[in-house]
Amino acid sequence: MSANRTKGGDELDINDTLDERKEVILKAIISNYLETGEPVGSRTISKYTDLNLSSATIRNEMSDLEELGYIVQPHTSAGRVPTDKGYRFYVDRMMAEKEESEAAQGTLLERVDKLESLLKQVAKVLAFNTQYATMVTSPRMLNKRIKFIQLSQVDESNLVAVIVVGDNVARNQLIHVEQALSNEDVLKFNLLLNTFLQGALVTEINIEMMQTMKQQAGGYADILEKIFEGIVDAVHQAEETQIYTSGTSNLLKLGEPGDINKASALLETFEDKEELSNLASAALNSDENDRDGNIQIYIGDESPVENMKDYSIVTSTYELPEGAKGTIGIIGPKRMDYKKVVNTLKSLTDELDTIFRKEGKRGE
Question: For the chain, which domains are there?
Answer without folding.
Answer: 3-82 (1.10.10.10), 106-140+241-362 (3.30.450.40), 146-238 (3.30.390.60)
